[in-house]
Amino acid sequence: MFAKLIDVVFGCTHSRYSFPRTVRAGARRSAAASVTGTYVVCLDCGREIPYDWHEMRTVGLRRKRAARALVTKEAA
Hints:
By secondary structure, the protein is of the alpha+beta class. The chain has three helices and four strands, in the order αβαβββα. The chain has one domain. The chain has a four-stranded antiparallel sheet. It is globular, with a radius of gyration of 14 Å. The N and C termini lie far apart (about 35 Å).
């Protein structure tokens, strides 16, 4: 919780990204890559951020999980 507070006050804006990286099947995935299989890295702070090739933009972890939960509820 303390780290989140520090990040809110002094955090990075994540405005500069690397080129999207896709993790091969069977390779060990980071938390960011496990969401969509593709991620970008912030060039200022080094944080890995999930990236969606279909939408061509970064994806928040919470938003992607909420969308996945909504799809499973509609299917049921």
